[in-house]
């Protein structure tokens, strides 16, 4: 959708809302539909090709509005007063789950207890999963020993994750009061199953109860991928709830060529993907699928009608359209990586699998830090740096929706221009005796 | 704002967004403003009279956009990349805090550590407060006895609330794993300070640590009000964190004549009010003020730019405009209560202080349940029932923004029509011998 189409369709939605409010007395306060009404009106899978805005808009009145209450418009958690809100979310998330080829058991349309919800972020998804795992574990411990208090049971529980997992895992453990063991990742930034199993066995030997493990598909720092097919069986062996945080990289798995990243997801108990990160859906929209309905699906009671925007995007782009956008972004990232590789002053950190390129000057950390500081004060481009195994580097990420080759080339020209200034400056500095340059002590490369 | 104004201004905002996206390459990825830039551009208090949409719109480009990054538009939690988002929230919540005449210590502009945040609902506000109180209590216990584990400390903690508190308090305690004691409310639905103090003393005598109390200003069932001025000193005496859930009724406290409901708030540690309930702000928008910055301000890391809608509403209605809307809604509720009182078949449950009227047929519960069922299947109006001290009743609430006397009269006419059918039916039933009517066993009135 280009800017002019956006103007037209946005204007139509404004009119739709104004009409709705102006004529609200003609609507009934409670919808007359029966539970499950929406399933009969919507196809079971996302369209392969994108549809026109007109056909989506028509369905708002035909398909959605009959299941919306006038009294609680767009903010009602109850199935009774806003079945459209609940049912569209179930359908849209089943669509997305199928696009990601998640096992049937994660879907509402599956045979088991699986299901999903749209949350505000990966943090809430991990918290909800952790709380569910904690509850099951405490119940089990107290069933075996009815004298055990909540606190005594809690003291036995351990959760695991790697040092490359997003800090929201730590935050969830602080809120859930579950001890967290942070395990060292391997040279690629992934956690090996041997490391996980060794930690679990060590804790079991100490009388502790391993309860939760959070794997990451696409780490924040370097976009590394934990191997679910190897880690999953370890979790299953010891009865550990395995959650997969695929907030960013999960979206790419709608492309068959990237789906291997989720191989092994059938061993997991829950997985979260944030379409607001890379699937053209506006913030916020994080999908959590789980094999068993949690006691609490979310922190708050009320719910916004977030499935509408997901449904709009899935229909207007279609599966092929979204795959094409992902591939285009990955292609741009690879083009940027080529530019970096072709310049002998720079090196890449890790592989470029998706839209993130990690790179640095073949130099000490402090020169790279200087490059970052200068880019920051220059203000023409914005790069967020990171460190991995002691190496400070810059991260270039293709932001979805609007990035083009001209933007990538522009960014590279700015980096070059700033680098030229730095290397000149650094040459002067390196002329000094080694001991006088603080940077030498933190060199790792 | 009427429907035509909404069409015009909504269309302008669509154009604004389209222009923004179309010309995004002309913007810098990071804003050039310094921290605190916004305070200098915005007045310290909400306007008394409403302003035009034009003046608000002008300020979006002049005041907001200089503090917005193009790279992370409207979804960036970082002060660095979107200072407008962070700073506008601080300013708008200080405005609202001043409108509610909260003690200075709750405000960013105060001298102490107070501050506030917009969250998604009262549940999250209570959870954040509870987790903060829990953390402080566990730290203190483990400081006194370094051998104590987290679980052992946790087992000592107790939270309190009344049987009229929203169930989200129970949910917060389940997530936070803190024991909750639910105390009986008095005949008005409020919790007496004597009941709270007796419970605290009983637990202290058992070696437990009272840590958190959630008071309610405007309970869900009957809109009852806990007396903060009496309960607060009890909490202070025993070092208990007192949170005030004023989700619905808090909004009314912008009117001087209702501000007494918050008398005693100076004894509390945190308070939450949901402008999405009664201050014309779209869902979701819950304000949490607290005296001390919590370790975690919210569950998720990312944040939407929710302060914009709060700021728009405060400016376009002004304090007087919003007070007028509250008064109008309360007046409508009192008009409905008059209709109920004038009909000898009905009785009111409790007083009508704000926008909720609780009423029932002067009859057994099952006849009232029948009235509710019939209204539900009739579908012309939507009332949510409740029970208090064994009495089942109906709840008529004035929904903000669009309810008029004609709607109230229409609702009353529907209730009358349905009641006529019921009382006839019931007359038949009451002719039967007492024992044959199941309803008699659950009669309370």
Automatic annotation (TrEMBL), chains A, B:
Cofactor(s) listed: pyridoxal 5'-phosphate
Highest taxon, organism lineage: Eukaryota
Annotated keywords: Decarboxylase, Lyase, Pyridoxal phosphate
Gene3D superfamilies cross-referenced by the UniProt entry: Aspartate Aminotransferase, domain 1 (3.90.1150.10), dopa decarboxylase, N-terminal domain (1.20.1340.10), Type I PLP-dependent aspartate aminotransferase-like (Major domain) (3.40.640.10)
Family annotation (Pfam families): Pyridoxal_deC (PF00282)
SUPFAM superfamilies: PLP-dependent transferases (SSF53383)
UniProt-listed PANTHER family: GROUP II PYRIDOXAL-5-PHOSPHATE DECARBOXYLASE, MIP05841P
Stated family: Belongs to the group II decarboxylase family.
Protein name, entry field: Aromatic-L-amino-acid decarboxylase-like
Organism: Aplysia californica
